[in-house]
Design goal:
The protein is α/β, with parallel strands linked by helices. The chain has a single domain, classed as LigB-like (Protocatechuate 4,5-dioxygenase, Chain B, 3-Layer(aba) Sandwich). The protein is 34% helix and 21% strand. The chain contains ten helices and ten strands. The strands form two sheets. An eight-stranded mixed beta sheet has the order 6-3-7-2-8-1-10-9, sandwiched between helices. Helix 1 crosses helix 5 and helix 4 crosses helix 6. The relative contact order is 0.23. Bound molecules: 3,4-dihydroxybenzoic acid and fe (iii) ion. The site of fe (iii) ion has 5 residues, from loops. Fe (iii) ion binds next to loops.
């Protein structure tokens, strides 16, 4: 049977991808940010997952503002890196896992979570930057990826509770897939940041630290945070953190934190990163 062995949460700031693509990771501004991912890359090399269910948000790239699914699962064979206005990132094509993706869609939809099914789309920085942070710059991504998109761009976003419960449904789906697969679930975005308006540049380290502290041990409390508190405390784009709760719900209740990194700033964003492992 397939099993979820662990997962990753990480910010997906587009400037991080640009720094990697343009060879700037060793500059003073970026060095401390990338230093926190050295251990992560070593961990990834040990784990060798077959598939990553990668929870991210599309930033009005694949879905534009004409169609805005709250939850969407990629059932395609492959996904190109999107052109977000300055050309496609020079990263490998993302290969999907249609069989597992359709199985998750079947199981989760029958468990009352309404997913949009996406056979064709390009994937933006929300998905490709986390892959770059965790795998570096290989010629091909070393595993399959199922894109799982969440609307946190246009009001109203799904609640943290809904996301956490959806994570449980994803766990049940993966664990009922008959093939012997090592699966990870990732949650991306965050941490505190606001990219527009009067509070542009907002960073709330106290909120972020408490979120990180409670993520492994007390996710129930985090699942109760109403969306307006994310906006108030973590900024208008801090709402991306609800996607971390899909990852947390998909992991075991007693999953353990094995790595943490927090760094300010990257662009206008507080970067947060956790690795959790399920018990064997
Ligand atoms: C930026 C964009 C994002 O999508 C994000 O999550 C953080 C920062 C930016 O444009 O700086
Ligand atoms: Fe984002």
């Amino acid at each position: 049977m397939a099993r979820i062995t662990g997962g990753v949460t990480t910010s997906h700031v587009p400037a991080i991808g640009a720094a990697m693509d343009l060879g700037k990771t060793d500059e003073d501004y970026w060095r401390p940010l990338f230093a926190g991912y050295e251990r992560s890359k070593a961990w990834m090399a040990e784990q060798e997952p077959d598939v990553i269910v990668l929870v991210y948000n599309d930033h009005a790239t694949a879905f534009s503002l004409e169609m805005i699914p709250t939850f969407a699962i990629g059932t395609g064979e492959r996904y190109e890196s999107a052109d977000e206005g300055w050309g496609r990132r020079p990263v490998p094509v993302v290969e999907g896992h249609p069989d597992l993706a359709w199985h998750i869609a079947q199981s989760v939809i029958q468990d009352d979570f309404d997913l949009t099914i996406v056979n064709e789309m390009d994937v933006d920085h929300g998905l490709t930057v986390p892959l770059s942070l965790m795998f570096g710059q290989p010629d091909a991504w070393p595993c399959k990826v199922i894109p799982f998109a969440v609307n946190v761009v246009v009001y109203p976003p799904p609640s943290g509770r809904r996301c956490y419960d959806l994570g449980h449904a994803i766990r049940k789906a993966v664990e009922s897939f008959p093939d012997d697969l090592n699966v990870q679930v990732w949650g991306t975005g965050g941490m505190s940041h606001q990219l527009q308006g009067e509070r542009v540049g907002l960073i709330n380290t106290e909120f972020d630290t408490e979120f990180l502290d409670r993520f492994a041990s007390d996710p129930e409390a985090l699942a109760s945070i109403p969306h307006i508190d994310y906006v108030r405390e973590a900024g208008s784009e801090g709402i991306e953190l609800v996607m971390w709760l899909i990852m947390r719900g998909a992991l075991a209740p007693d999953a353990k934190e094995v790595h943490r990194h927090y760094h300010v700033p990257a662009s206008n964003t507080a970067v947060g990163h956790l690795i959790l492992e399920n018990p064997r």
